[in-house]
Amino acid sequence: MTDITIPQTTSATTPIVDAPQVLELCKSAEKIAICGHINPDGDALGSALALRNLLESPEFSPGVDRQVTLLLGQDGSAPELYDFLPNYHFIAARNYTDTPDLFICVDCPTLKRIGSSRDAFERAAATLVIDHHANYEGYADYYYGNCRAAATGNLIWGLIRLSGVTPTRNMALFCYVAILTDTGRFSFQNTNAQAFADATEMVRLGVSPSDVAEMVYESKSMAALKLEARLIERMRFALDGQLVCSYVTEQDLYELGIGRDATEGLPSILRSIAGVKVAVLLREETDGLRVNLRSRCGINVADFACAFGGGGHAGAAGFTLDMPLVEAERSVIPELEALISRTSST
Questions:
Q1: Is residue 6 in some structural domain?
Q2: What pLDDT sits at residue 194?
Q3: 7 has a pLDDT exceeding 80
Q4: Is residue 282 within 8 Å of 319, Cβ to Cβ?
């Protein structure tokens, strides 16, 4: 996959490195911390796990006893949804006291999204971002990215293939989960030929698409289904069904006894409704209100999210607001109605 520069829409001044330079940076460090964004999804988690496997491989740096630690930028444990993955071990960044030689942020274009990992990030001797979003803010010492990549997992897979290390089934599994989830089972607008090509290699290494799909998408608890029912009951439509909005609260999660990872697929449920062009999920969190957007029909919600301090992709983006749910709905929905109207008239 060809490396490209930081999009011109950013003001980033971070030195851009290519894949061989990324590998050299990693080889020069004996103590490395890796972190994705807060509330990590399959791409952030899978990319971090695969990168750790690469860096810890004896083939990568023969004779080097490298220490690689995976961090969560928030308290608590990693999402249970992905606990079928081997060696699925992350620690809360608040409990990490080492000073890494290299801190690597994966799938995280903005500094505020690394959460409580920021202290470790600032202690590090060097910092690197590996990412595929178009709104990178230029906050690290080095940047390696491609906003044409379907997932950060594609970038990690490219590093594995270039490294000379023999790819393992686990490396393939981690990257496959990253790509599968960030493309919405290879159905989102960011899905491209490279995503399929990389996934083909991973399947040849022993990854079972049916097994992974079952674990990620077809192993829902009764509580998760009840949450979906609440989501559907609360749907509100605008513009003759072109816009749909719903919400979930912290109280919902408490009453149903489930974690935040149970909300990961909810925006796609809303977008799946016939006639919907933009779907909005408002999700209460302890530090604010998360607004998740999904779109189709060529409507770019990434630019919309950037205007509110967030980001993402053309068909899937989000941002956080510091306001109550009702106020957020009153603020966001009219703006989205205007976006849909403008796009439909062009």
A1: no
A2: 98
A3: no
A4: no
pLDDT at 202 over 60: yes
Section 66-72 average pLDDT: 97
Q: Which of 95, 91, 38 is nearest to 288 (CA)?
A: 38
Sign, Cα dihedral of 156, 112, 148, 42: positive
Q: Which of 216, 234, 253 is the last residue of a domain?
A: 216
E strands, the chain, in order: 31-35, 67-72, 91-92, 102-106, 126-131, 142-145, 236-238, 243-248, 278-285, 288-295, 311-312, 316-321
Torsion of CA 12, 14, 18, 23, to 10 degrees: -140
Helix and strand counts by DSSP (H, E) for the chain:
12, 12
Q: Beta strands 126-131 and 31-35: pairing type?
A: unpaired
Domain containing residue 169: 19-216
Tens of pLDDT, residue by residue over 124-160, are 999 999 999 998 999 999 999 999 999 999 999 999 9
pLDDT, residue 9, reads 40
- Are 289 and 313 in contact by the 8 Å Cβ rule? The answer is no
Contact 244, 236 (CB under 8 A): yes
- Kindly provide the residue ranges of all beta strands, DSSP E only, lying in 53-116, ordered along the sequence: 67-72, 91-92, 102-106
Q: Quickly list DSSP for 4-28.
A: -PPPTTS---PPB--HHHHHHHHHT
Q: Indicate whether 207 and 285 sit together in one domain.
A: no
Pair of tokens at residue 242: 């072109």
The identity of residue 137, as a single letter, is: E
CATH of residue 25: 3.90.1640.10
Cα separations in angstroms, 3 against 46, 131, 142, 154: 21, 11, 14, 12
What CATH code is carried by the domain that includes residue 250?
3.10.310.30
pTM: 0.91
